[in-house]
Amino acid sequence: MKYSVIVPVFNRPDEVDELLESLLGQEEKDFEVIIVEDGSQVPCKEVCNKYADRLDLHYYCKENSGPGQSRNYGAERAKGEYLLILDSDVVLPNGYLHAVSEELEREPADAFGGPDCAHDSFTDTQKAISYSMTSFFTTGGIRGGKKKLDKFYPRSFNMGIRRDVYQELGGFSKMRFGEDIDFSIRIFKAGKRCRLFPDAWVWHKRRTDFRKFWRQVYNSGIARINLYKKYPESLKLVHLLPMVFTVGTIFLNLMVLCGIIMFCFSSTKSVGCILLLLGLLPLLLYSTVICIDSTRQNNSVKIGLLSIRAAFIQLTGYGCGFISAWWKRCVCGKDEFAAYEKNFYK
């Protein structure tokens, strides 16, 4: 067997239904599917039963331990030459597996991954979140399929790896967040070949509302500091940018507030007006760029406007998590921790 598709699931039966339906339509058929229910209160067993006679499908239910350990549980039971790690909130185009096979035939790889994009059926909020996670103006476009990379670190929503390499490296660590980057770092440290497969893309729903999106990116900021404590060399200048953006945004908003106060209650109204303009202009300029670019990509002014909110949530949420983790781990010297651990997946 060539591929084992491994999917950890927590309370997402409807999304598992969509994923399994997309697996039915794959042009390439040499694969099995392993669903690992990670202690869900709303299980997807009935959904899986619908596909039991149409897919080589294996359903397992276990106590909650997080997505990384659930992937390891599935990998222990996999038979494929390659393990394809997917999140339960992705949907595959019909040519996904074919694109993976073509890339492997063209140039072998020990590990690989692909980009993601938004499906037409996604809500406007989901499309705005997808834009913020893939745009050049928020992430540099790396998650959107940027081809010219010195190193590509696969993410667990769309990751592939040879089963023997997975076993050699011991799979995912027990980190609750950032476990996919931790695994990718260990892949490189072991001298393995890791590549981006730009045509092996998925539709990725990510979070369904901005509150959940904030929690996600906040925890990503925490994970970056936890990764830094394990691998100091992994922290790059680009990882500091959301923190700089967050501090800058706070500073600019304080300038706006001071400008309003001085304009309304002080005799130096001109100074207040200058402070107000200096604080507002950078925020308005960035918001305008985001709105125009997202509107152009999504053909929707509404999504363009929502993308402004998504971009600020992404960058400031990540920045706040990063600053919080830096203070607790690097300044106060506390052990690894994870915010929102109990409700991260809710």
TrEMBL record:
The keyword Glycoprotein does not apply. Its EC number is 2.4.-.-. The chain crosses the membrane at residues 237-263, 269-292, 304-327. Pfam families: Glycos_transf_2. Gene3D superfamilies: Spore Coat Polysaccharide Biosynthesis Protein SpsA, Chain A. It is an enzyme of class 2 (transferase). GO terms for molecular function: glycosyltransferase activity. It comes from the Bacteria. The keyword Zinc does not apply. This is Glycosyl transferase family 2. It comes from Prevotella fusca JCM 17724.
